[in-house]
Amino acid sequence: MKAAFFLLPVAFLTVSALAQKADPVPKKVADITDFGATPNDDTDDTTAIEKAIEAAANSEEIGTVFVPAGTFILSRRNAESPILELPPNTTFRGEGPASVLKYDPKVNESNFWRMLGAPVDGGTKNVVIRDLRLDGSNTHKFYDKGKTPEHNAGIWFYNRKHLIENVLVENVLAENFSGDCMAFSYNCIGITVRDCTLRNFVRQGIQMGGSENARDYLVTGCRDLEHDVRPGGSTIHVEHARGLKNVIIENNQCRKSILAGGVDGMIIRGNTIDGRLVGNGNKNLVIRDNIVRAFPEAKSATVQLGYTKGLVFKGNVIASADAETGVYIWGNSRYNSQPGEDVILSENRIEAKTTGIFFNGAKNVKIRDNIVKAAGKALKLQRAEGVDSDIEVE
Fold first, then answer.
1. Please, is 41 exposed, middle or buried when counting C-beta atoms within 10 Å of its C-beta (0-12, 13-18, 19+)?
2. What digits encode the pLDDT tens for the residues 65-91?
3. In angstroms, rounded to a whole number, what is the distance separating the alpha carbons of residues 324 and 302?
4. Sequence spans of domains, the chain
5. Is residue 323 a contact partner of residue 299, using CB atoms and an 8 Å limit?
6. pTM for this one?
7. CATH C-level class of 64-274
């Protein structure tokens, strides 16, 4: 049999050749050791790392600041906030957990140390932080108000005057911070935190705030490890949202609680939480397919949602036999007239010590196809109107 030969169309060859020519030339890498940073000693590497970042900012050929394996020491000299400012279109990466940025131990003596973030005088965009270990050198074992430097953080993106757009934090281990491991707030747009690991935070693990311009946050695939300190807050914490829109918190493993409030358009989905799930003041909220197991000392409600307008709570497992109430949805208090309004509660498995589901100050509620196990009442209603339920109220 004769071999068959095929001629490729001339047009295909032409397009292919053009595509190869169009491939961008790989950008150079600014290795921090080339600028004077020395690993695994007691010398301060802050200035050297700043020089590497400056080289990347001032060159179109350099797109990446590289932190090789080793431990590099950072310190706050004056009023830097953050210490390392990442300019637009910069990737700041290491080789994984072996690439360590670590605070000088004097961090425990003062406040407002923030390791990585946006330039104060201009904001930033298109920033990637990945494959690093950030060590806050904290020695405080718990939060002691007035004594613990609670504003010392790892990643810290915040700017009241300028936008921070399109930031990716990926495969970062952040540990030993007396404040938050990671924090995002004013003027942040398009924030993604993916596959990160947290440990030994005294305040919060991942803290998310906002402003009228803030929107489009995603936190996924993150987890916190067993702690040697006593965290004062949540693994994932949304507070002071100030108009924040469109937040997704999904597929995270939380040894502590998720607190998420003040957002318009939020999805909390597929998380495992060994703590509580709490949030106030949300609009258009979807909570689906989570497993929530309150820690033994949590005697109140495992899930507590207040002043919520538009809530779908579906397919969750609330497994906390020690908590007094499984799901508590409330509103219309002397502080806020907004009821827990327009709520669908369906297909959940809820376990609690006394009350399975408690609506207090609620309006327009639909309850369907839940499995509830409680020693007292499966459903309790107080100051509730417009309730359509397949659970009888005793």
1. exposed
2. 999 999 999 999 898 999 999 999 999
3. 8
4. 64-274, 278-287+298-394
5. yes
6. 0.92
7. mainly beta
